[in-house]
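Regression test case RT-17, inverse folding.

Input:
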């Protein structure tokens, strides 16, 4: 697990360094952005295979039950956090690790067969999405595979494009009818003074709008 995390950190850190060093080279930035996206997908796959990964809503999981193909399914976690399988019905999946879900399924299936051998594999991580819009090289929806800061998110989207003023608005749902807007200057992100640090850690559903 530690080696996987370190690899992911290295990938994202390298992308950040690229953003800081290739301003004014949009063609090269676009190429690097594509590579960063591929690296992020590879990191997501590695994290999904970790036994410590916590399953979330809209994640796609593959469930295989030995000698029982009728129950073996690939399913998406519903908005209520549940999945449905033949015989066992609705089972809570969100908030569990793949191993915990496997144990839950094994216990539920003991009623129907004496020997139960089940595997749970996360095929797609869809539960930790952020939106990066505005003056970046590759705006769009991204799936985070680990804790990510504002500058790391911008790096994931290929960095600032030549038209950017490097002003950032972080839009975050706060449980009320009005979303919270946090205004950030790029200089505040890279400032070495911790008291002015605005390199916030993102939450699922956050929107980073770059002006």
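Golden output:
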């Amino acid at each position: 697990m530690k080696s996987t995390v370190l690899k992911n950190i290295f990938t994202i850190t390298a992308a950040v360094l690229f953003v800081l060093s290739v301003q004014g080279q949009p063609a090269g930035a676009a190429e690097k952005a594509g590579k960063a996206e591929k690296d992020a997908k590879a990191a997501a796959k590695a994290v999904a295979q970790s036994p410590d990964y916590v399953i979330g809503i809209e994640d796609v999981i593959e469930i295989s039950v030995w000698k029982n193909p009728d129950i073996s399914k690939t399913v998406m976690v519903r908005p209520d956090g549940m999945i449905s399988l033949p015989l066992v019905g609705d089972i809570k999946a969100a908030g569990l690790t793949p191993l915990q879900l496997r144990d839950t399924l094994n216990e539920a299936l003991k009623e129907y067969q004496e020997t139960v051998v089940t595997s749970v594999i996360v095929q797609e991580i869809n539960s930790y999405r952020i939106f990066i819009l505005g003056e970046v090289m590759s705006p769009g929806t991204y799936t985070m595979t680990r804790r990510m800061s504002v500058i790391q998110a911008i790096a994931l989207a290929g960095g600032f494009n030549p038209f950017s003023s490097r002003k950032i608005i972080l839009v975050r749902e706060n449980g009320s009818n009005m979303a919270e807007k946090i205004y950030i200057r790029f200089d505040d992100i890279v400032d070495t003074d911790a008291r002015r640090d605005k390199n916030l850690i993102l939450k699922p559903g956050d929107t980073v709008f770059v002006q």
